[in-house]
Structure formats: structure tokens, C-alpha cells
Amino acid sequence: MHPHANDPTAPLQRPVQGATDTVVSDWAVADPTPRPPAVDEVHLWRIALDADARRHKNDVAVLATSEQQRAGRYRHDRDRVRFVSARAALRQILGAYLGLTGSDVEFQYGPHGKPRLTPHPAGELHFNFSDSGDLGLLAVGHGRPLGVDIERLRGRRNLPGLAARMFPAAEAETVAGLTGDDQVAVFYRFWTSFEARVKARGSGIFHADVASSLEADWRVHHLLPRTDSIAAVALDRSAPPARWRAYTWP
Fold first, then answer.
1. Most buried residue, 33, 71, 138, 192, by most Cβ within 10 Å?
2. pTM for this predicted structure
3. What is the DSSP string of the chain?
């Protein structure tokens, strides 16, 4: 799989005219004992978040007490199931890298809430997770900070207005100059780029001033985990180019 770090204004490969980015088609079945990524690798995990009753019960048992309590605060069953699926997958995948059960994985949190693993003899694993609807995406690297964002490619009211509030002026003008599917595609290409960079830095929610300061430090790679979704992975520009491996969970 070869995600591209192209100009964000380039058209996306999706079922509209002008497709250029690669739709990922080689997602491997999850390896129960994956080897940790090498220093020049990033592992991507595409995670199905809707679960039947049996999987959900098993997933709940993996969670820490605080996570179970948080799940219980969701008002809607679908949202609760997806939260539990995401946290359980995160724990089980990272645990497999570390030789631990999912329940034994321990997290620490940065000042803006970015999670990281408690130091472990297996090495310095970095990870970041994002979800949109029924699909989650986990990126795992070794010794390099990274950030990931995934969004459903869907129209919403007044994308130019939202871009004007959130994006730097040049990107907002680009969105305003487009219509229809092209506007949706480019808007979410910019959005995921900025969000992934902010998450890589661990600096909270992005806005226009923050977005303008991030481009020089982070290299962004776009991919389509599914034909209705776009994702971005941000990597430190000082690190070597990444090789990619892609897996599906469960």
C-alpha cells in the first residue's frame, strides 16, 4: 500500500471524475501476534466498530473500569457499542505488539489528552486512533510521533462557511471555489490533514492559526480506507519516509 503525500487540492480517487489517490485494497487479515513496526514502518489497522452481542460482551471485559464507566454514560446503544469496540481493539492490538493481554495495557495522557503507552521493554511504540461512524483507524509506529484522522466523505450544510472559520485563508478560498462532490472531497482532504497534524503534535483542537503553523513540521499521507471515507496520517518530516503495512480488525 502506498498512501500519497500529494497536494491536498489534487482530486481524490472515489466514484467521481478525476480520481488520483489510491483506494487501499490490500488490507491483510489481522495477525494474532504482529511484530512491532520497524523504525521506517507505519502499521495501519482498519477497525470495524459495529459488533454483535457476543463480540461486545467480550470487548467490555477487556476494558478498564474507567472505560466501562465511560461507556455506560452513552445514551445510545450504537454509540456505546462503537466506543467499546474501539477501546477494546486498541488495547488488544497494542497488547499483541507488547506481548500483553488487552486488559494489561496501560496508558498515560499528555496535557491535551493524547494517549501514549506506559514505557515497556518492547520498545517505544507510538500510536494514534481516529473513528468516523462505523469505522476506526489505528496507526502504529516505532520511535516517531504520528497522528491520524478519518472522516466519512459526506456533504454537510455550508462547507465554505465552516472552512472560513477553521482553515487558513488559502484553503478556505479553495473550498469556496468548488461545488458538489469536488467541494466535499477537497474540504475533507484539508480537514483530515490539519486534524492529523494537530493530533501528531498533541496540541488539542485545530483552528486556522494553529493549522498555518503545522505544515513545515509534518508530512501528511492520504489514503482511502473505504470508498466512502478519507484518512490522513501525519509523520514528522525529520523522520525517514515510511513503509506501510495495513491490517483489518477483527
1. 192
2. 0.89
3. ---B---TTSPP-SSSSS--SPBP--PEEPPSSPPPPPTTEEEEEEEE----HHHHHHHHHHS-HHHHHHHHT-SSHHHHHHHHHHHHHHHHHHHHHHT--GGG--EEE-TT--EEEPP-TT--EEEEEEEETTEEEEEEEESS-EEEEEEE----TTHHHHHHHHS-HHHHHHHHT--HHHHHHHHHHHHHHHHHHHHHHT--S--HHHHHTTTTTEEEEEEEEETTEEEEEEEETTSPPPEEEEEEE-
